[in-house]
Design a protein that fits this description.
Elements (H helix, E strand, L loop, with lengths): L8 E4 L3 H13 L4 E4 L2 H10 L4 E5 L7 H10 L5 E6 L3 E2 L2 E2 H7 L4 E4 L4 H9 L4
């Protein structure tokens, strides 16, 4: 698949091998992404530029994905958000339902697959 520079993606994942694998899957779709390894870095990147899609690990150091998602939905920036869930429960609450309730457009259990990435990009109408 060719380059698709019109789609701007922020990939937020604290696990370096997982982040590299997801960046590679996006690259196979012709999408270059900006990468962040924690919630603080994600917020800094969102302040610095506009994204069409944020793929957000919900269990992060610094600020977790739930905090980033709540901040994002209260901000001016309104990208599509895909929540990557590594645990079914988060403090006794269904993590996927919690993420969707905070405004995530999609929620997938980890590990994310090529199909998950394709569905995420399809949310953009691309």
């Amino acid at each position: 698949m060719g380059e698709n520079p019109s789609i701007s993606v922020l990939l937020v994942e604290d696990n370096a091998p997982t982040r590299a694998r997801l960046a590679h899957l996006l690259g196979e779709l012709g999408i270059t992404c900006v990468q962040a390894c924690d919630g603080e870095e994600a917020i800094a990147e969102i302040h610095a530029r506009t994204f069409d899609l944020v793929i957000l690990d919900m269990h992060l150091p610094q600020k977790d994905g739930f905090e980033v998602l709540a901040w994002l939905r209260a901000s001016e920036s309104k990208p599509k958000v895909v929540a990557a869930i590594s645990a079914v429960d988060f403090h006794g609450t269904n993590a996927a339902q919690m993420a969707l309730g905070l405004g995530a457009d999609l929620a997938f259990s980890k590990p994310l697959t090529e199909d998950h990435i394709r569905q995420s990009v399809a949310q953009l109408g691309a």
